[in-house]
Design a protein that fits this description.
The complex is a heterodimer of chains A (350) and B (249). By secondary structure, chain A is mainly beta. Helices cover 13% and strands 51% of the residues of chain A. Chain A is globular. By secondary structure, chain B is an alpha/beta fold. Chain B has a single domain, classed as Rossmann fold (3-Layer(aba) Sandwich), CATH 3.40.50. Chain B has helices spanning 42-50, 73-78, 96-110, 118-132, 149-163, 179-191, 207-211, 231-240, 243-246, and strands at residues 2-11, 17-26, 31-35, 55-63, 66-67, 81-84, 91-95, 142-143, 167-171, 198-202, 216-221, 224-229. Classes of the chains: A mainly beta (350), B alpha/beta (249).
C-alpha cells in the first residue's frame, strides 16, 4: 500500500481558502486498486489531472509489483491514465454494439475515432467492477456520433471520457447509470471547430448507501459551437450524488450556445445531493442558460394519483419512473435505457 | 348518496377553521351546485373529501354506507369518489394514455374484471376523448405536461368518463374553459347523469349551470352552507352578489 502526500500547489491552497472554485471538491480517503500489466515494458502509471487540465501528479507504481493499491487522501478532480497504452484503437462506422466489462483491479484505455463525414451510432453496455476506464473519442469534421451508454458500475469504479469534436461535428451521448459504492465519472468535451456541437443527457439511479460523482466539463473552443448537458438523478435512502457541470467559453468562441440542467429527486431525507452548474464565459456574444433543481417527491402529484385510485406504492412507482423516463422518451434507443433503470427503480428504497 | 355532518377542516398546524361544522346531504341521482365567494372554503371541501393530507379534518362523512374520513385517498377513489381538480397537476414522464389505462384497469381489477385489452381500451379512449375534444396527440404526451389550463381540465373529465364514478365533484371545472370546451364538458357531465350517481359542481358562474342543470344550489360562506335552494338562487346571486348573505339576520 503506497500512500501519497498532500498536494502542494498554489491553486489548491487558494481553493482551500475558498478562493479558487476550479479546484472544487471530491472524494477524500479514496482507495483504488489496479493491476500492472507485466507484459508491457513501458512504465505504467496514472496522473491526476485537475479540471483546468493541469497535470497535478503522476503516480508510478513500483515496477516489480503487479498489483498495487493506492490510498489517496486528498481531493482531486480527474482520475486519468496518461501513460497507459491504448488497449483498443478503432475507427467507428455505421452501427456498433459494444459490450465492455472490466474486472476487479483492471484498467482500460480506448481510442475511438469517427472519420470525417460519417454518422455512427455506438450502443454501449459497460460493467465496471473496481475498475478504471478511460475513453478518448475524436469526432472529425462533419461527423456525428450518437453514443448510447448503459453503465453498471460495481464497487469503486472510475470512468473518464475525453471527446474532441471538430468543425461541424456532433457528439450526442445518452446514458443510463446506476450508482455503486463509489462511481466516479469525469467527462471533458472539447468543441474544437466552428459549428461543433454536443448533447449530453442522462439519468442515474443511486440506491441506498451508493455514491455517484459525475463531473462534466464542456469547452467551447471555437465560434458557433453548441452544447447541452442535462442530468436527472434519483436517490434512495442514504444515497449521495455530486453532479458538476462546467461550461467554459473561450474569448474566440463567439455565438456559442450552452444549456445546462441538473435535477435531483430525493426519496429520503437521508439522501444527499450536490449540484453545481458553472459557467466560465470570456465573451459577451453568447447564449447560456443553466439551472438546477432538487427536491423530495411532490405531495400534490402523489395525492393526485391516489385520488384516481392508485395506492401510495403504485403512485410512487409511476412518479419515479416518469422522472427517469422523461430523459429518454424522445430517443430511438431510449426504451432500452429506460428499461435498464426501471429495474433499479423497482428495487430502490426511499 | 354523500352525507356530510359537522365537518370541520383546518390546515395542518393552523388554528383557523376553513370549514366550520358544515353539514350537507346530497342524495343519489342528484346534481347540485355549490357556489360562494373566494375563500369561502369550496375547494377545501373538495380536497378534504378527496383526502388531502394538508388538512386536519373532523366530523362525519359517509359515502353510501362507508365512513369516508377513515379511508386513505386511494380508497376513497376506489369507493367511487372522483374529484376533478381546479388545478390538475402535471406529471412529466408519465404517459397520459398509460396513466388512463393504469387507473382504469386498477378499477376493473377491484371489480374482479380482466384488464381491457389494447384494442378495446383504445376504442374506449377514442370514444371518450372525442366527447371532451382531446385528440390522439394528447394521449402520447406526459400527463398534463405542457397542457393549457383548459386542456388539463378536459383531461380530468376524460379520466372521469373512463372511471364512471358514483360521486363526482367538479371543482371550478368551468373556469378557464372557452365556450366550445364548456359545451363539451357539460355534455360529458350530462352523459354521466344517472339515478345512481351524484354530481357536485363547485362554480362561481352560472354558465356551466345553464348546460348542466342542478336540482339544488347551495351557497357557502365562511366555511358553512348559508343558503340552499334551486336555480332561482343562482339568479338572485347573479343580481345581488353575496352581500345579502353576509348581513346579520
Amino acid at each position: 500500500m503506497a500512500t501519497t502526500t498532500g498536494i502542494n500547489l498554489p491553486e489548491y491552497h487558494q481553493y482551500q481558502k475558498g478562493k479558487n472554485e476550479a479546484w472544487r471538491r471530491l472524494p477524500r480517503n479514496l482507495e483504488f486498486l489496479y493491476t500492472v500489466d507485466p507484459l508491457q515494458k513501458k512504465k505504467l502509471g496514472k496522473s491526476l489531472v485537475t479540471k483546468n487540465g493541469q497535470a497535478l501528479r503522476v503516480i508510478k507504481p513500483e515496477e516489480s509489483v503487479q498489483c498495487c493499491a493506492y490510498h489517496w487522501s486528498d481531493e482531486f478532480l480527474y482520475q486519468f491514465n496518461q501513460e497507459i497504452a491504448y488497449g483498443l484503437r478503432t475507427t467507428l462506422q455505421g452501427h456498433v454494439d459494444w459490450k465492455d466489462q472490466l474486472e476487479a483491479g483492471k484498467q482500460g484505455r480506448y481510442l475511438l475515432v469517427v472519420k470525417s463525414g460519417h454518422s455512427v451510432t455506438l450502443s454501449e453496455s459497460t460493467e465496471l467492477n473496481h475498475a478504471l476506464r478511460s475513453i478518448d473519442i475524436i469526432i472529425e469534421a462533419g461527423a456525428t456520433l450518437n453514443h448510447y451508454q448503459i453503465i453498471h458500475p460495481k464497487g469503486k469504479s472510475f470512468d473518464h471520457i475525453h471527446v474532441v469534436v471538430e468543425a461541424g461535428g456532433c457528439y450526442e451521448q445518452l446514458y443510463a447509470q446506476y450508482g455503486s459504492a463509489l462511481y466516479r465519472r469525469s467527462q471533458q468535451i472539447v468543441l474544437k471547430g466552428d459549428g461543433a456541437s454536443c448533447k449530453i443527457s442522462g439519468a442515474c439511479v443511486v440506491s441506498s448507501l451508493q455514491s455517484l460523482k459525475e463531473h462534466v466539463t464542456i469547452v467551447h473552443d471555437a465560434k458557433n459551437t453548441h452544447s447541452e448537458h442535462s442530468v436527472a438523478s434519483l436517490l434512495g435512502h442514504q444515497a449521495a450524488t455530486d453532479i458538476l457541470s462546467t461550461v467554459t467559453i473561450h474569448s474566440h468562441a463567439q455565438k456559442s450556445v450552452s444549456r445546462q440542467k441538473i435535477e435531483h429527486l430525493l426519496l429520503s431525507e437521508q439522501a444527499r445531493a450536490f449540484s453545481k452548474p458553472a459557467l466560465n464565459v470570456a465573451i459577451d456574444d453568447v447564449d447560456c442558460q443553466h439551472g438546477a433543481t432538487m427536491g423530495m417527491l411532490d405531495e400534490m402529484i402523489l395525492f393526485y394519483m391516489q385520488s384516481r385510485g392508485l395506492d401510495l406504492g403504485m403512485a410512487k412507482s409511476l412518479y419515479t419512473k416518469g422522472f427517469i423516463k422523461k430523459t429518454f422518451e424522445r430517443y430511438e434507443y431510449g426504451k432500452l435505457l429506460t428499461d435498464f433503470l426501471f429495474q433499479q427503480v423497482d428495487a430502490i428504497d426511499g | 348518496m354523500i352525507t356530510i355532518q359537522q365537518l370541520c377542516v383546518k390546515a395542518k398546524g393552523g388554528d383557523k377553521l376553513i370549514l366550520d361544522h358544515l353539514s350537507l346531504a346530497i342524495p343519489k341521482g342528484e346534481v347540485c351546485a355549490i357556489m360562494g365567494p373566494n375563500g369561502s372554503g369550496k375547494s377545501t371541501l373538495a380536497h378534504a373529501l378527496a383526502g388531502h393530507q394538508e388538512y386536519e379534518v373532523s366530523g362525519e362523512v359517509t359515502l353510501g354506507t362507508q365512513d369516508l374520513l377513515s379511508l386513505e385517498p386511494y380508497e376513497r377513489a376506489q369507493n367511487g369518489l372522483f374529484v376533478a381538480f381546479q388545478y390538475p397537476v402535471a406529471i412529466p414522464g408519465v404517459n397520459n394514455l398509460f396513466f388512463m389505462k393504469t387507473i382504469l384497469n386498477a378499477k376493473r381489477k377491484r371489480q374482479g374484471l380482466h384488464p381491457l385489452d389494447a384494442a378495446d381500451f383504445m376504442e374506449l379512449v377514442e370514444e371518450k376523448s372525442e366527447m371532451v375534444g382531446l385528440d390522439a396527440s394528447f394521449w402520447e404526451r406526459s400527463l398534463n405536461d405542457d397542457f393549457s389550463g383548459g386542456e388539463r381540465k378536459r383531461n380530468d373529465i376524460l379520466q372521469m368518463l373512463l372511471l364512471e364514478p358514483d360521486v363526482m365533484i367538479l371543482d371550478e371545472t368551468d373556469s378557464g374553459l372557452d365556450i366550445d370546451s364548456m359545451q363539451l364538458v357539460a355534455n360529458a357531465v350530462n352523459s354521466l347523469r344517472s339515478p345512481n350517481r351524484t354530481i357536485i359542481m363547485i362554480t362561481h358562474y352560472q354558465r356551466l349551470l345553464r348546460y348542466v342543470k342542478p336540482s339544488s344550489v347551495h351557497v357557502m360562506l365562511n366555511g358553512q352552507i348559508k343558503a340552499s335552494s334551486d336555480m332561482k338562487l343562482v339568479d338572485k346571486l347573479e343580481k345581488e352578489g353575496y352581500q345579502w348573505l353576509q348581513q346579520p339576520a
